[in-house]
Amino acid sequence: DAGVIQSPRHEVTEMGQEVTLRCKPISGHDYLFWYRQTMMRGLELLIYFNNNVPIDDSGMPEDRFSAKMPNASFSTLKIQPSEPRDSAVYFCASSPRAGSYGYTFGSGTRLTVV
Amino acid sequence: DAKTTQPPSMDCAEGRAANLPCNHSTISGNEYVYWYRQIHSQGPQYIIHGLKNNETNEMASLIITEDRKSSTLILPHATLRDTAVYYCIVRVGGTASKLTFGTGTRLQVTL
Asked: Residue B20 to residues A3, A7, B62: CA-CA distances in angstroms?
């Protein structure tokens, strides 16, 4: 199994531009999570999906952030317009189902907004 | 989910056992204890979890006190590659609950 795959690994963009981060979860995993990590705030949960349906988006910072999961094998996190304070490492994780299962995280996307 | 308290940092000599403590005094009966670690620049990695019995796998052992108010993650023979931030998380099992990461313990394994 290739694990959770995120792309791109690094993204540098100018303020005001649209940024799209991508995630392919492990096949058969029902849950998908988007996290953001910064030095100041640590790891924060942004949103998570169950069977492609958003369950909790209370961590999404503002309307500039949106996430979709059009099918079981693909999810996107979009920032439009991007701002320098969005600079962070964004992680995607998936889990087989609810219950006492561990999450598998991807390698992350390091976003820099200049 | 119950809150956890961990020391901010610890050191361990290579080859020795690393014992990482975690306090979770407000844990509920249906909450599991999870341990993850994050090696620099990588995504967090699941290590082990337990409810009330001690658990062991190829990576580590988890010792949970009888009253479940604290636990210890044991890396039996620490190596330099175990240098990472270790997170202790308490979470309800059997639900679609989310993992909430605290600040963790930064373990430095030295020669």
From this structure: 28, 34, 10
